[in-house]
Design a protein that fits this description.
The chain is built from 2 helices and 7 strands. With 95 residues, the chain is α/β, with parallel strands linked by helices. Strands 4, 5, 6 and 7 form a 4-stranded antiparallel β-sheet that branches. Strands 1-2-3 form a 3-stranded parallel β-sheet, with helices on one face. The protein starts with 6 loop residues before the first helix and ends with a strand.
Length: 95
């Protein structure tokens, strides 16, 4: 849906990352919404993504560190019971 992630919401919340729990890989997120999200931070999807600049194809895990001042995103291989890490971000400083 291209009317989601309205610019006013993004401006008010200043997100650093997005986790999109969508399974319709071609339809979600809509191109306009994705463009707005990518202008603020990294985009991760639980489904295989066909959209450029989106990390996906696995389980998306958000690791918040003990005092809550930092977090990190991991993508785990969902095609194996070993769930090895196939992508990880640097640590983000929480806002």
């Amino acid at each position: 849906c291209d009317d989601s992630m309205h610019a006013d919401v993004l401006l008010a919340t200043h997100p650093q990352v997005f986790v999109v729990p969508a399974w319709e890989k071609d339809a979600h997120p809509g191109n306009d919404a994705l463009s707005r999200m990518k202008s603020y931070g990294e985009v991760f999807m639980a489904a295989p993504a066909t959209k450029e600049g989106v990390e996906s194809n696995g389980h998306v895990v958000v690791r918040v560190y003990e005092d809550g001042s930092e977090f990190q995103i991991f993508v785990l291989n969902d095609r194996s019971t070993d769930y090895e890490v196939i992508h990880k971000t640097d640590k983000y400083t929480s806002k």
